[in-house]
Amino acid sequence: MREIMPTRSAALELADERKLMRQGYEFLDEKRVLLASEMLRQLKIYKERSDRLVALSERAAQALAAAVERHGFDHLQLYPKPQPPQMPPTEQSLFLSLVMLSAGEPPKVAADAAAIDPSPEAKACRAAYEVLLWASADLAARAGNLNRLAREYRRTERRARALENVLLPEVDQAIKMVDEQLDMMEREETIRTRWSIGLR
């Protein structure tokens, strides 16, 4: 702890410093609560989207099985190759200056070359995997949101604990020490004054 001269101005400066630190701690504490509630909200969304992804995976596997049953695996491989998959556009929002992402609507897929033996099963298989790709991108964006929120919560927690457990106690101790020394100096001055009056 820094060395402080026991003066009235030093006591006032320390009191102002303590006031600012307490305001900072209250701000960080409120930020912690907001981050924690947002993490719980995002975690709920992540769980819902994760369950949805499992259901979509099962649906896509069933669609693939139906298409293979209709065309055979070799003939299904000869189905016209679709356009290269594009990641869906991401939608952004801000929460306490943190970027929150989610996948936008799935992009419209351009029509491909006509198949020699088109079938509803093959089209359903392709559509199921396009939706699965979009859902995977959305789930990845939600996981990134949770990581950013957790990282910011840890940083805020460290700062709040440093203020609460280190800096505020140091300032309180310094104020107490300065007050004690000022009281002692005032008593000495009072005794000296009385002593000098008594000698007259």
What is the compact description of this entry?
With 200 residues, the chain is mostly helical. The protein has helices spanning 8-71, 73-77, 120-199, and strands at 90-95, 98-103.
Question: How are the elements arranged and paired?
Answer:
Elements: H1 8-71, H2 73-77, E1 90-95, E2 98-103, H3 120-199
Antiparallel strand pairs: 1-2
Helix pairs in contact: 1-3
Output the CATH class name: Mainly Alpha
The share of residues in helices is over 70%
Write the element-wise H/E pattern from the N-terminal end onward: HHEEH
CATH topology: Helix Hairpins
What's the alpha carbon Rg, rounded to whole Å? 34 Å
Strand fraction: 5-15%
Stretches where pLDDT is under 50 for at least 5 consecutive residues are none
Strand order of the biggest β-sheet: 1-2
Provide the structure class.
mainly alpha
Large-scale geometry: rod-shaped
What's the total number of strands?
2
> How many structural domains in the coordinates?
1
Mean pLDDT, to the nearest integer, reads 84
Specify the number of helices.
3
What does this structure look like?
The protein has a single domain, classed as Helix Hairpins (Orthogonal Bundle), CATH 1.10.287. It contains three helices and two strands. The protein has a two-stranded antiparallel sheet. The two termini are 44 Å apart. The relative contact order is 0.16.
List keywords for this structure.
mainly alpha; 200 residues; Helix Hairpins
